[in-house]
Every structure is written in structure tokens, then in C-alpha cells.
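WARN retry 2 of 3 for item q-0093 after timeout on previous attempt; input resubmitted unchanged.
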Amino acid sequence: MSDAVSMLKPAFKNPATSPELTDALVNSVHAKRAQALALLKAATAEFSAITFANSYGAEDMVLTDLIARENLAIEIFSLDTGRLPAETYTLMSDVEKAYTIKPLVFFPKHEAVEQYVRTQGINAFYESIDLRKACCHMRKVEPLQRALAGKQAWVTGMRAEQATTRANLPVREYDASNKLEKFNPLSDWTEKEVWAYIRLYDVPYNALHDQFYPSIGCAPCTRAVAMGEDIRAGRWWWEDPTSKECGLHVKK
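OK item q-0093 returned
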């Protein structure tokens, strides 16, 4: 645990998750919400089998709220890797209660996990990029492929400013890896806009965000970051920033 986190007081709030709701910021959020809603409505009109991949990060909670609040015909699913933080499971339960919905949950195949652990070790992903990507593949990519089977399109909460690997992210693109359309309604949203939406609409979110975890994945591969540090710095922090993707959103 970082020194910044260990010194937190119980009432402390991460400034990044509590933006000042200026008129300009509020107006921007309302405008971008309308744009995102229009895109999602157009997507449901075009595709009858469309699903949303919810990782329970801040961005995905914005889309969960939008889909549930507007009663859009979009299925919601999540990937339980088996190594998520306890706070993420708490949020999963909170979402079910707040929106009276039950997102589908996909798990990795136990045979693959058992084989990996037996041959490589429980935390082998720290040893090389190849072993880390192999872990991500069995825990995320393969379950995602099952989740997307039979679908025509899927929705993600990715934003262009999240990482160098996501620069120039379009709101709509063809996903050649999964052979279906892909929508990124929040591609041009800023982090402040995401958190302003969460505050304005009283959206539940992961408690780790208030402990300097801007991006949350599996527990052993996620850590807190310093104030002002890149928002993806806490993900796979032992790797070069240009390789920091789990394989879910890598283009062929």
C-alpha cells in the first residue's frame, strides 16, 4: 500500500472523484449524456443483439446508469476473473440493488486456470509479459468471447484519454477480433465529466476510487497511484505503458 493511501483519514475523499460541479462542467455532462444516449438508441435500433461489457469501473458505472435509467434494450454482462478486489464484488451487489438488474457473469474455464497455476505458479504474471497476457487471456479474453457469442454489437466504457493505446478512439468501430460492431459512447469524455455524472446522478461506484485507484482490474495487478500520476499507472505497473492492455480491446 502506498504512503498516500496508508495516511488516509476515514472521511477523506479523493479530489479526482469529487470535482467542483461548475456550470460549465454540468452543462458539458448533460450535453455528452445526450450524445451518448442518442448513440446507444441508434445502436439498439440497428442491432437487436447488443450487449454491454461492465467492468464496474467509473466509466462503466456511467453507462450502467444510463442503460438502466433509460431502460435501453442492451444486455449487461461482466467478467469475474476470480481475482477481483473485494470492493468490486460489493459494488456488483450494490448495482443489483440500486437498479434491480442482474448483469450476466462469465467466469474463466476452471481447467485453464488450474493448468496455468500448476505449471506456472499462482502469481506467474509478474514474471513476464507473455505470462501476464496468458493469464489475462484465460481470465478475460476467452470468457469475453463466450459473452459476445451470437451478438451483433457490443458497448464499452473506454475513453481516448485513458491510455496511449486508446488515442483517437472512435465512438463506433468494427471489432475485427470479435467480428462485430463496437460502440464507445464515452470516447471523448474527460475524467472530470465521468465523475461529475456520477455525482449528479448519484451513481454507485467502487470504494477503491476514493483510495487513489483510478483504474481497477484484478487485485494483484492493480495498485493505488500518486496524485497527478497517469490514470493507468496503477495497472500492470511493472510494464511499459505501450503494452498495458489485457487483450480485450487489442486490434488485429
